[in-house]
Each structure stands twice: as C-alpha cells, then as structure tokens.
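Hey L., structure's done. Input below.
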Amino acid sequence: MRQGSRSPHGRLPGRFDRLLHLGNVVVDIVLTVPALPERGGDVLASQARTAAGGGLNVMAAAARQGLRAAYAGAHGTGPFGTLARAALEKEGVGIIQPARAGLDTGFVLTIVEASGERTFLTSRGAEATLTAGDLDPVRPGARDAVYLSGYSLVHGSNRAALLGWLARLGDGNSMFFDPGPLVGSIPPGALATVLGRADWLTCNAREAAILAGTADPRAAAAMLARRATRATRAGGPGVIPRGCRRHQRRRRRSQRGLHRRAGGGRGRGHGGPQRERSGRALGHQARAGHGADRGGTSPLPRHRMNSEVVGKGRRLR
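Output:
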C-alpha cells in the first residue's frame, strides 16, 4: 500500500464525486444444486438464473447510495453485452467505452451448492480485450475514486493497459483494489505494482493468505496491515458467523458477520455481497465525507488500506 501522507493534515480532501470502475462486468449464469456431481456425473439444478454481475455490483451499490459511477471496462455487442449494458443503464451507471463489434461480453457459470459454497467456470469475452488506446481518453476527475479488480490483471491486454494507465494516475485519487480469487494467477510484478499504488485493499481469508503467505487470517491481516501506515479491516456481512478482524488506528478488534441466506438475491454469483458492500461504503463516504469513519463524523488519515478478511472460510463474492 502507499506509504506516507501528502496532505498537510493527513486527511482526504473532501468527498468522492464519482466511482470510476476499471474492472469487468460479466454475466452470471447461476445454477443451484444440492452438491457437485462426481467427475463425469450429472445433477439436476433446483434453480437457474442469469444476470449481469462482477463489477456491476460495486457500481450499482455505490449509485444507490448517491455516488455517480462510470464503467471504463470493455463490453461486447452480443446478447450478454446487451444484458450487461441494460443492467448498467438501469442503475444509472455511465458507460465510457463503445461496444466491441464482433465480440460478446463474457460469462461465468456459477454452481451454488446447498451449503452456499460456490464453484466458478469463467468464459472470457470482450471485457478481456481492454487496450491502452481505450484508456487514453479516460481521465479521472480530481475527486474520483478508482476501483480495480484482480480479474483484469489476469488478462494480458487489460493488464498492460491498466498498468500504463495507473502510472499516470494522480496522487489525489484514491484507488481501491479487489484482488479476487485469481490473485495467485496475477504476475508478481503486476501485483506488486498495483498493491504499491492501492490505497484500499479488500480481500477474504483465502486471498489474504495468498498475499501474506500465511493461512492464519489474523496473522495475514496483521501482515497486510504492516504494509501501510495504517489499516482498516472491515467486516464481511453474512459470509461466516465468525466475522472478521478489524484493524484501525493500530487497534484491533473483532467484528461479527451478518447472517445471509446462501445463494439468495442478485449477484450471488460472480460479484455479490462483498462487492456490494464496497460500493455502499463508497456511496456512504460520498454523502458523509471522503475518508469519514462509521457514521461519517471522524475524518481518517490518508492512504488507508481496507482489507476485508473473513475468518476461516469463503467470501460471498
């Protein structure tokens, strides 16, 4: 995480005016099953649904909290691309890039077991073809919050474009990074560059273990916190009753999770509660003050790293 403070009082300058999302919006095809079949077997799904997901969840949640949002990622012209754009437009999210002719938006086949465990199969599409030329005209405003997903760094074209774009990003813009489940597939150099620029980091226990090199969620949280001058680990709602560890101003405390019904609601495939939570937090700060703590009354110092570390289990993505 970025170190030090360039603000004379160590505070963030004002409120977020917009969320600029450089991740991926894809389509979730979600199948609910009792359990995964044996290899080569079959199982009947009790429920099936298709909806736009991925980065949409963050932007929709932010927009519903009153923060303007814009999607700078690529999208296609096929039926999935049409579905993704319709969902973005419904939430009032601005679409920066023109649709990719001859390519459709990718999709994620999500298998949800009765326990709530999820298995993902991803088919890449237009969202994996972002280029430097696409991002050249994308100029963040002085008070834009920038959101980046680890999925984008797995795709070679996106990775090259985003690293070049981030090198030109001004210090005044806060950057949020969600490494995602494929964090182990991100080239180490690219991961180090993005972590070095990120102000906020959001991850679950598994992702934190990969980043920190330890399977102990508490130790991983502490190790990641030491990479920044200060750190917050905000709790994950509803994923596990154990909740998480919250690190704030060098103090540590436990935070209980909120119970959710497994598999319910929109975006419970490739996206979902944690990303919705990130968007709600951004929207809350847009109303209450950029960098404000819970309740919006206590301005926090700059360059905070926020890492959602869920104890011993999975994150509902």
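Residues 18-306 form a domain with the UDP-N-acetylmuramoyl-L-alanine:D-glutamate ligase fold (CATH 3.40.1190.20). The two ends are 23 Å apart (CA to CA).

-- N.
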